[in-house]
TrEMBL record:
<feature type="transmembrane region" description="Helical">
    <location>
        <begin position="280"/>
        <end position="299"/>
    </location>
</feature>
<feature type="transmembrane region" description="Helical">
    <location>
        <begin position="306"/>
        <end position="323"/>
    </location>
</feature>
<dbReference type="InterPro" id="IPR030923">
    <property type="entry name" value="LptG"/>
</dbReference>
<keyword id="KW-0812">Transmembrane</keyword>
<keyword id="KW-0472">Membrane</keyword>
<dbReference type="GO" id="GO:0055085">
    <property type="term" value="P:transmembrane transport"/>
</dbReference>
<keyword id="KW-1133">Transmembrane helix</keyword>
<feature type="transmembrane region" description="Helical">
    <location>
        <begin position="335"/>
        <end position="358"/>
    </location>
</feature>
<dbReference type="Pfam" id="PF03739">
    <property type="entry name" value="LptF_LptG"/>
</dbReference>
<keyword id="KW-1003">Cell membrane</keyword>
<protein>
    <submittedName>
        <fullName>LPS export ABC transporter permease LptG</fullName>
    </submittedName>
</protein>
<dbReference type="GO" id="GO:0043190">
    <property type="term" value="C:ATP-binding cassette (ABC) transporter complex"/>
</dbReference>
<feature type="transmembrane region" description="Helical">
    <location>
        <begin position="63"/>
        <end position="84"/>
    </location>
</feature>
<dbReference type="InterPro" id="IPR005495">
    <property type="entry name" value="LptG/LptF_permease"/>
</dbReference>
<dbReference type="GO" id="GO:0015920">
    <property type="term" value="P:lipopolysaccharide transport"/>
</dbReference>
<feature type="transmembrane region" description="Helical">
    <location>
        <begin position="105"/>
        <end position="123"/>
    </location>
</feature>
Amino acid sequence: MDFFPSRTLAFYMAKMFLIRIFSVVALLVLVLMSLDLLGQSGKILAFQGNGEAELWTYVSLRAPQIIAFALPFSVLLGTLITLATLNQNSEVVSMKAGGLSAHQILAPLIVTSLLVAISSFLFNETVVAPATATLSAWEKVEFGPIPRESNVKTNVWVKDGNNLVNAKVVAGRGKNVVLRDITVFSRSENDLRSLLHADEGRYTGQSWTITGVTRFDVATGTEQKQDQLTIGETLRPDQFTLSSVNAEGLTLPQLKTAIDDLKAAGRPTMSLEASMWHKISGPLSAMLMPLLGAVAAFGLARSGQLFLRAVIGMALGFAFFVADNFSLAMGNIGAYPPFLAAWAPFILFFLIGETVLVRTEE
């Protein structure tokens, strides 16, 4: 049960593992970021006044998402490269000749991947979530000026009876919600009767007071202007703030608060609860990669099966990612309970990895 009989060997393997993980991350981020920027640069520069500075702003907001996406794959590839190298150089044979079991050989890699998982979780919470929220808001205004307020949503549509209400910017929470650049489409059955535009709207407790109003009557073709107007006696603030909750753009505490607000409003929350649990299980999946890729470490290199073993390890790793995405999709549509949707693939592939390791090496 002594998983670290040699501190020198443990540090040697951990250092080798980390170098390969971050090398693969750097390579994947460089390639994926370049391809993504090529696809988006035209849209960014299409907005008048945007230039090189806005391209770098996009890179700073998009790169954290790509890093978070590439890190689990990088841990898998880093595992395969590390273990295949050790196997090819007969270092694994030397370790087993010295009395180390398969679990003792993998222990430094699993501990290192746990540290990577913790770092990934903290990175997601402090960098990725705010960057995702800002980038989402920026994309919705077609790469125009980014809203600076906190708790901002952009381009929100709400139905009020037969009428449709569109707010380009929604800021604040609860009864302190402020709407900006508002358009109200007044309809009778399927016919548009009037078009109302306002600069700003505030909730008064029972209705909305909008200011800077311009009303266009479709039937007469006339336009009227008013300083302020009261509308939306049946519109609630939570219809704007909870209309679209982006789980990827919220930290874990913020997502928990949004789920509680939705439950209080009687809205479904299963997909968001699955995403909340996945914020923990997703980064922690890095711990599985040394176990799933362990098949590449064992077997004699000169037997000619090293490449086949590496392919099997890669197949197990990518099978986990497929199962994880499938399970999360089932959770989003309510077919799986949220906790099961987030954790079932992790538990399943942990058992598969352990079974393969025990049956073949222990």
